[in-house]
Each structure stands twice: as structure tokens, then as C-alpha cells.
């Protein structure tokens, strides 16, 4: 079992930056793929980014590529999402998730554990 707690959300102006953190407790954090997803009001949850166990592989949604950076610190059992050049369309609840699977990291169904989410609001 893994418990995930996100933090770092808030209100920021367009063009600004935020760093989200996802603190994990439980077993073997380093064995999980960590992902970030988001859900805006009235929209379906969408994939944002994922990072492999060893940080050697990362995936990004096209909409955030070049602006967001996912990382993890296995010694601290924490994953991060650095968000820069934020746009109003980035406004959403952001969720971190953990997966034991080796493929299909862009699919929410591949993830076993989810955090409660943190709100990010980008004003224009």
C-alpha cells in the first residue's frame, strides 16, 4: 500500500511558475512509476507527465512539453512537477499517482494509487 499526498498548488498569474510535490509513504517508493494527471471542471482527467523508477525515462503530454518538468527523489520518497510559463488552460486539480506497470504510463487505469489532488489556478 502507498499513500500519496500532493502539495504546492495555489493561485498564480499567467506566465508564472509553481512546483508541486507528491510525498509518498508505504512500501518501496522507488519501485513505482510516478505520474501526474489533472482534471479541469467539466473535463475528463488527462495525463500530464510520468517518470520511471530510475528517472531515466520521462513522458509528457504535448500540451505541457517544454514547460513542465517531472522529477523524483527516491531518497525522500517524493515526486515533483515543476510548472513554468503557466497558462489559464493549465487550471485544474492536479493528482499524483503511482504505478507498478512497465508500460502504458499515460493511461490513468495503469496507476494503482492516487493522491487527493491539489488545486492549481492560473489567472489571466
What is the strand and helix layout of this fold?
Elements: E1 2-7, E2 10-13, E3 18-26, E4 33-39, E5 46-51, E6 58-60, E7 68-73, E8 78-83, E9 92-99, E10 113-114, E11 118-123
Parallel strand pairs: 2-11
Antiparallel strand pairs: 1-3, 3-8, 4-5, 4-9, 5-6, 7-8, 9-10, 9-11
Could you describe the 3D structure shown?
The radius of gyration is 13 Å and the shape is globular. It has strands at 2-7, 10-13, 18-26, 33-39, 46-51, 58-60, 68-73, 78-83, 92-99, 113-114, 118-123. A hairpin with a 4-residue loop joins strand 7 (68-73) and strand 8. By secondary structure, it is mostly beta strands. Helix content is 0%, strand content 51%. The strands form two sheets. Strands 2, 4, 5, 6, 9, 10 and 11 form a seven-stranded mixed beta sheet that branches.
Low-confidence stretches: none
The helix tally amounts to 0
**Structural class from helices and strands?**
mainly beta
Write down the overall geometry. globular
Q: Radius of gyration from the CA trace?
A: 13 Å
The whole-number mean of residue pLDDT values reads: 94
* Strand residues, percent: over 45%
The beta-strand count equals: 11
> What gap, in angstroms, lies between the N and C termini?
40 Å
Approximate helicity band = under 10%
What profile does the largest beta sheet have? 7 strands, mixed
Written as H for each helix and E for each strand, in order along the chain, the element string is EEEEEEEEEEE
